[in-house]
Design brief:
Length: about 260
């Protein structure tokens, strides 16, 4: 199959997706950059499942001749000013069947970091298991930075070089200790260059316990983020908590600051 034919089929695939009704939308703010005024944009989210046939001339050396099931995801700006439209696309073997899955698939992808950086904005992207190698590398690095990864109710156990901000709250019968840990050094991660402008690799460790159950083992959750921001750990924690607020309300986890 010729490259021209492949290009035509790809264009048709995205055209069909664009003709369908969006699954949802969300709003973000783009700051002023390169002579462009700051503006608020609304991005519609569309996704579908597609079947991609393996070209006959590649089937032999790829050692596969069965079609590949994939998801195509598109974030497109609605009512964009002339010449300023944003359109982000992703074709992935991940199974995307919900709005949340579509946002997550796009959110942590290096291409999204590049697009946001090109727009002159800073990003905070949730790093989830759909970026498997990156998630494993970052999780392992933070585990190595804590002297006792399983210890609870403890602070100050992070290695030198980690910026840490700790908060504690008691609310509605629940105790929560939140540690925001930031690494600026990225030489330990050979693939960090894929995320354009990466300045901060962040771990949020949340330890929660119901106050009425003092003998209960606290629940510990670890969340990881990548950011182009140089803000301190306290400010990054505030911004990430806004992520949680948005996720709880609308299931949207992609944010631009």
């Amino acid at each position: 199959m010729s490259k021209k034919r492949n290009g035509e089929q790809e264009a048709q695939m995205w055209s069909r997706l664009g003709q369908g009704a969006p699954a949802g939308s969300f709003t973000l703010k783009l700051p002023r950059s390169q002579g462009q005024k700051a503006r608020e944009v609304t991005l519609s989210v569309r996704f579908s499942r597609v079947t991609i046939a393996v070209p006959k001339h590649k089937a032999k050396y790829l050692k596969m001749d069965t079609p590949v099931e994939a998801s195509n995801v598109e974030l497109r700006e609605e009512n964009a000013p002339k010449g300023k439209s944003i359109c982000w696309r992703l074709l992935s073997t991940l199974e995307v069947d919900t709005l949340e899955a579509a946002i997550d698939a796009m959110g942590g992808h290096p291409a999204i970091a590049q697009l946001i950086a090109d727009a002159g904005a800073d990003y905070i992207l949730a790093l989830k298991a759909n970026e498997q190698a990156a998630h494993q590398a970052v999780a392992a690095q933070f585990a190595s930075q804590r002297s006792n990864p399983t210890e609870i109710h403890a602070t100050g156990t992070w290695a030198a070089g980690c910026e840490v901000s700790t908060t504690r709250e008691q609310n509605r019968g629940r105790y929560e200790q939140r540690e925001v840990v930031v690494l600026r050094e990225t030489s330990w991660w050979p693939k960090s260059w894929k995320w354009a402008g990466l300045q901060s690799i962040i771990c949020v460790r949340r330890e929660t316990m119901r106050q009425r159950h003092p003998l209960e083992t606290p629940t510990v959750e670890m969340h990881y983020y990548l950011s182009s921001s140089k803000a301190d750990a306290t400010e990054l924690g505030r911004l990430i908590r806004n992520h949680w607020s948005v996720e709880n309300q609308c299931h949207h986890l992609l944010d631009v600051t």
